[in-house]
Amino acid sequence: MSRRLYCLSVMQQFFDEARAGSTRSNCAKQKLGAALVKDGKVLSVGWNSCACGGYSRSQEISAEKCERMALPTGQGYERSRPVHAEVAALLNIRPERSAADFERCISTVEPTEELVSSLFTPEERTLLQGAVLYLSGHTYACDSCQKWARLLGITSILFAGD
Length: 162
Fold this sequence. Notes:
Blueprint: H1 3-22, E1 33-38, E2 41-47, H2 77-80, H3 85-91, H4 99-103, H5 113-119, H6 122-128, E3 132-136, H7 143-151, E4 156-159
Parallel strand pairs: 3-4
Antiparallel strand pairs: 1-2, 1-3
C-alpha cells in the first residue's frame, strides 16, 4: 500500500471516530462530531449538544421542540445554548468534566485566555498543543471554535465533507 493511501486510511479512521461521536448529539437540527487526535492517537471525541426549551444536554430534542429549527444555521444560539462539537472534544480530554464546565463554553461565550486557563490544567494544555481536530457533519468551524483551537494550540481542523 502506498504511503498516501495509508495516510488517507488513517485519516478516514479519525473521521469515522468523529462521525461516531455525532450520533451522541441531542441536537434536532444538525448532528456534528469531532475527534481530537495527536501523534496518531484519539485523545477524545466530542459532539454538539443543546439545552433547548428546558431540556438537558443528555435528552434528545425533537424537531418540534427545537427552538432553532426554522432559523438559518448560525442564528438563535441564545435559544438553545449549544456547545459545539469541537469545544466538547477539547473539554472531553478530561472524562469527569462537570456539566458546569460545558455551560461555561456555550457558543455565545467568547473564548479568552483567562477562560481557557480556568478550564484546562497546564498538563491538559500541554497535551492539546499540536493536536488536530477532525470534524464530521460540517464543512467549516465557526470563528469561536477556531479561536478555542488557537488558544489551545490545535494545529488544524480537518473536515470530512459529509
